[in-house]
Amino acid sequence: MPESQALPFLVPAVGGARGDVVTPTFSVIIAAYNAADAIGDALESVFAQTKPPREVIVCDDGSTDELDGALTSYSDRITLIRKQNGGEGSAKNTAARAASSDFIAVLDADDAYLPTRLEALQALAEARPDLDILTTDAYLEVDGQVARRCYTNDWTFEVEDQRAGILDRNFIFGHVAVRRDRFLSVGGFDETIRWTTDWDCWLRLILDGARAGCVMEPLAVYRVHEGSLSADRARLVAGRLQTLEKATARDDLSAHEHAVLNRSLSRYRRELALLDLRAALREGRADVRDRALGVARDRNYPRRVRFNAAAAALLPGMAGRRERRREMNAWVGAGGTRVVRN
Question: Among the residues of the chain, which ranges form H helices?
Answer without folding.
Answer: 39-47, 67-71, 88-98, 117-127, 162-168, 180-185, 197-207, 233-247, 255-283, 288-297, 303-314, 316-329
